[in-house]
Amino acid sequence: MTSVPLLISAPHSCSYLPEQQAQSAFVNPLFELTTANYSQLIQHGFRRSGNEVYRPHCPHCLQCIPTRLAVNDFKPNRAQKRCAEKNRATRVVIKPAEFDSHHYAMYLRYQQQRHADGQMVHSSADDYIHFLSSHWCHTQFVEFFIADQLAALAVVDCLEQGLSAVYTFFEPEFSSYSLGVYAVLWQINEAKKRGLPYLYLGFLIQQCAKMAYKIQYHPLEGLINERWQLL
């Protein structure tokens, strides 16, 4: 991998494990990022948040495990099969990663319903689009429609060796459709269609319920001691 200049953040409270202090290694903002070099960085455990690329660098905690799924080996469990069946009529539209007021309004409703105690519930329109999009990455916004109503949006990075699931949110009234699960299933199938071997799912944190769901997708690989291995 091309040498990439990294900076280390100051210690701060961990967003996922409140009793822990966290640090991150992040790519120097002056470095010119592209989809190509991010495709290399994600293989080394880095993730994108807006234009910033980072990975955990906590000296006393190893709870954050980067994960990916070999899509051709994926075996859905019973709940995932039921979810796919329930969404047989769900319609998908792929769009550029651009601001849309309907997406933003749904994002705020989702945050209010699911993460009312978090900071993102107060996101401005600029906060929202800067968090999900990037001026250097090939990102797509994937809309999911149920009965012609916008029900969910998945933010997907399209990389050289796979897709990366950035974020998914949905209308609370459609929570019974398990659209977070369905978005992952759709991305698995989409990666297969595009001839890409992996879907990158972000960090697995088993002690944090909202980050532990990834273990439900098999066979899941984790980056441990700089080596991808089955979890």
Itemize the secondary structure elements and their pairings.
Layout: E1 6-8, E2 12-13, E3 21-22, E4 24-27, H1 35-41, E5 47-49, E6 52-56, E7 65-70, H2 78-86, E8 91-96, H3 101-114, H4 125-132, E9 139-146, E10 149-158, E11 162-170, H5 179-193, E12 198-204, E13 220-224, E14 227-230
Parallel strand pairs: 11-12
Antiparallel strand pairs: 1-4, 2-3, 4-6, 5-6, 7-12, 7-13, 8-9, 9-10, 10-11, 13-14
Can you walk through the features of this model?
The protein is an alpha+beta fold and 231 residues long. It has two domains: 6-62, no CATH class; 68-230, Aminopeptidase (3-Layer(aba) Sandwich), CATH 3.40.630.30. Helix content is 23%, strand content 32%. The chain has helices at residues 35-41, 78-86, 101-114, 125-132, 179-193; strands at 6-8, 12-13, 21-22, 24-27, 47-49, 52-56, 65-70, 91-96, 139-146, 149-158, 162-170, 198-204, 220-224, 227-230. The strands form three sheets. Strands 8-9-10-11-12-7-13-14 form an eight-stranded mixed beta sheet, with helices on both faces. Strands 1-4-6-5 form a four-stranded antiparallel beta sheet. The longest helix has 15 residues, at 179-193. The protein starts with 5 loop residues before the first strand and ends with a strand. The mean pLDDT is 93.
